[in-house]
Amino acid sequence: MNKEIFIKLLQQRQFKAVRSILDVMNEVDIASLLSKLDDKELALAFRLIPKDKAAEVFSNMDTSMQSYLVEMFTEKELKELLDDLYMDDTVDMLEELPANLVNRILNTVSATDRKMINQLLNYPDDSAGSIMTTEYVDLRDTMTVGQAMAHIKRTGIHKETIYTCYVTERRKLVGIVSAKDLMTTEDDVPIKDLMETEIISVTTHNDQEYVAQLFTKYDLLALPVLDADGLMVGIVTFDDAMDVMVDEATEDITKMAAINPSEKTYFDTSVFQHAMNRIPWLLILMLTSIITGTIITKYENAFAAIPLLVSFIPMLMDTGGNCGSQSATLIIRGIALDEIHFKDLFKVVFKEFRISLIVGAALSIVNGLRILIQYRNPSLALVIAFSLIGTVIMAKMVGCMLPLLAKKVHLDPAIMASPLITTLVDTFSILIYFNIATLLFKL
């Protein structure tokens, strides 16, 4: 939809045309379109969204838009919106809104909903309990398929998903039934004969990243959440698991780039906050590079004897950093996908060592031949060749081991990515280079 045309229709008060446009648009696309409007136009346009779409559009908006609309809503409008919002979307919104708006919302919802919201807000951050919804279809094993279908028709409109139904007995989860099975089975078949009893579930305190991994591993649409007593308290749906995957990937990318993670979007984060997110790591990396400078100074006699040695430092350091980053990226990915564990450390090290021999040999041969042709100096070619092999082996060992060690001590493996590994590898590559040079040239 063209933004200019939409705004023009709003300004001309052609509300019927605006409403007809919004009626045929997808909820996500409407939220994206509204994000381009100013505050006054946003409030006006939101009120023109068909009622059955409004809650879904609202849940797809960013925090700043939600905050403004909550402030602008009348009590009646706010109550209608909250009645249509799923519980997990309400909790997600409350976690981001200012305290005064949170209080206004809690005062608007019913006592039952307020109790449930407070319970969900009290679950640890990044836990399954914090991302679950309490709105799911529960059945009894004494029901028949026909009774179950009638129950879904009565209550399903208020549930986040009806594709998987949960069979409970005194809140104890005893089985699951898919909507497909219900729709393709005779009405008189008992639910207990149809339900599956091999159930994949999580607890409220399981890490949300582990929950997301289960969705990927088992191709789930929803996952039941149990409390400490084994009673069912909610479900995590696929869309929430996808949000977790995106959040975790974003966090890893920022850490791998030596930036403190931020939950706000790029444009919503102020210039000052962007700078503050980057400065700490840059300071650490800058100060650690002093070690490399000190090592280089120690070998100034070697520079004086053979000035040409200096020209190869950038190539060795860059090669080492690139090799370390390659290994670290693959290991971090393997850890994230639950393919690689700390118990695999020696297997990983042995594999990366063999890879480094092949890579080091290929790079050293190419550079050795280049130096022989360019400088006609066999000794220099040997120094660079051996230094490259040593640097590549060292870099790949560092790159594969550090993420696994970080995971073992409960640190995020992503912090062991490019910038930190590059800084460490730079120091070691200089040591390898000048030790080999002083040994072969007898400096």
TrEMBL record:
Homodimer. One of its GO terms (molecular function) is metal ion binding. It is a multi-pass membrane protein. It comes from [Ruminococcus] lactaris ATCC 29176. This is Magnesium transporter MgtE. The keyword Oxidoreductase does not apply. The keyword Transmembrane helix applies. Keywords: CBS domain, Cell membrane, Magnesium, Membrane, Metal-binding, Transmembrane, Transmembrane helix, Transport. The chain crosses the membrane at residues 353-373, 380-405, 417-441. The lineage of its organism: Bacteria, Bacillati, Bacillota, Clostridia, Lachnospirales. InterPro entries: CBS_dom, CBS_dom_sf, Mg_transptr_MgtE_intracell_dom, MgtE_N_sf, MgtE_transporter, SLC41_membr_dom, SLC41_membr_dom_sf. GO terms for cellular component: plasma membrane. Residues 132-194, 195-251 form the CBS domain. Pfam families: CBS, MgtE, MgtE_N. It is found in: Cell membrane; Membrane. Belongs to the SLC41A transporter family.
